[in-house]
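Subject line: Sequence and fold of a protein, written as structure tokens
Area: Proteins and the way their chains fold up in space.
Start of record: The labelled sequence and token lines come straight after this line.
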Amino acid sequence: MRQIVERLTAAAAISLASLLWASVAPAQSPAAPPAESASGPAAHLSAAEIVTRLLEKDEQRLNALEHYESERTYRIEYKGTGGEHNAEIKVRAEYTGPNHKKFTVESESGSKFICDKVLRRLIESEQEATSPSSRMQTSLSPENYDSELLGEEMVAVSGDQIRAWVLRVKPKVNSKFTYRGKVWVSADDYAIVRIQGEPAKNPSWWINRTSFEAEYVRRGSVWLPTKNVSSSHMRLGGEATLTIAYGAYPVVVERALKQTGDSADTTSSIAKLER
């Protein structure tokens, strides 16, 4: 069991690391004019143009995001050699821009070994990955990825239908920070709303394959992660699933930004959701 959990630690950490840059990418501030609709000029954008606009908006949105709070649940479920093993950690997460995350563990249940060796390590790695250098390695930039536009789809997000471009992405270098798969980008504000993929580099011979899916939700005027599910299939049998539920974000604080080239409007807006 110990060896299986050690392999799972590597797989889960890679899947999570692939998504950390997108996890703090808020949506376009309502103070800025909306982008062209998918039925207008933006409908003819290439994959490279979509990615360029996404990166520009992400930089603005990251600068605008000052603070959020949320209650997260990290859960591992393993079925296979050695029977069934589960573990869960509930965490209070606080983000303060531009590069600080604070996690406070509120409760633990299930396997203490998995909590200590897998879940707590994931939480520590997420705190470390907020630095600019880490974001550069995980960014969906032309330096890191080749992108292909597959088409458009309507994506369900919190009961709403969001028109999104679908990109197939392939890393230029296979590393523990990169992944291959599909990315859905909203057509109205160039924000990532969903990712499906697999790590570009298999973390261990003991793991046959790992896949993940991440979903994002709009809170006030920002997009934040709502759920991340990563599944690892062991070569000798068994499957482990890591689920991160990010909670409702009862507090989100952001600055309104003016158009590119103008100074930032220092007025802060606070979105408070009922608990």
